[in-house]
Structure formats: C-alpha cells, structure tokens
C-alpha cells in the first residue's frame, strides 16, 4: 500500500513542479509586458508633446522612415491596448495556475499523511 501511495506522491510532485515552472515563465512574460507598457506610455506622452510641425520617424530595420504624427499616435494607442489585454490575460492565467498549484499542494499534503499512516500501521507488524 505504501508503495502505491509513494507512486501517487511522486506523480503529483512532478505535476506540482511543472505548474511552478509554468507560473515562473508566465510571471517572466508578464514582467516583460509591464516593461513594454511603461515604455509605450512614455512614447505616448512624448508624442503628445508634439504638433503637426514636428517630424516623426519610425525605425524599420536599420532605416528611419518618416511617419505621420497621427499615424504614430494611433499605432502607439493600439500597441498599448494590445499590451494591456495581454497583461490581463496573463493575470487570469497566473490566477488559474496559482489555484492549480494550491490544489496540487493539498493533494500532496494528503498523500504525505496517507503515506505516514500506512508506514505507521506497517511498523508494529514488522517486529
């Protein structure tokens, strides 16, 4: 019986480890998105200071290409909307992963208790 519980415990521990790795990866992606959000907000502020007499350039590969100010503002606004949506998606994903991690943690605790009981019940019979 203890052997079967140990196998379950091992499998559950592997699932728990995988969820923790996924949480770590998702947190890293979310941090990058936060950085992009901050950078794009700064760009939006800077573009807001300009008027139609200013020239805006967009970097495409190694080349700077002239871009319309309104087009640049629209592009940045769309980018901000996209990044905000992605952050919200990752927050929901992280919340779900945290719940799964908690569920795995509970199962691990209960399996450890089962294993201890099985080993304790087996112990007196050995003597």
Could you please describe the fold and organization of this structure?
The protein is mainly alpha-helical. It has a single domain (1-105), classed as Helix Hairpins (Orthogonal Bundle). It has 2 helices and 2 strands. The chain has helices at residues 2-48, 69-126; strands at residues 56-60, 63-67. A two-stranded antiparallel sheet has the order 1-2. Strand 1 and strand 2 (63-67) form a beta hairpin. Helix 1 (2-48) runs antiparallel to helix 2. The longest helix is centred in the last third of the chain and has 58 residues, at 69-126. It is rod-shaped and about 90 Å long. The model has no long low-confidence stretch (mean pLDDT 92).
Key words describing this protein structure:
rod-shaped, 127 residues, mainly alpha
Concise account of the structure shown:
The chain has a single domain, classed as Helix Hairpins.
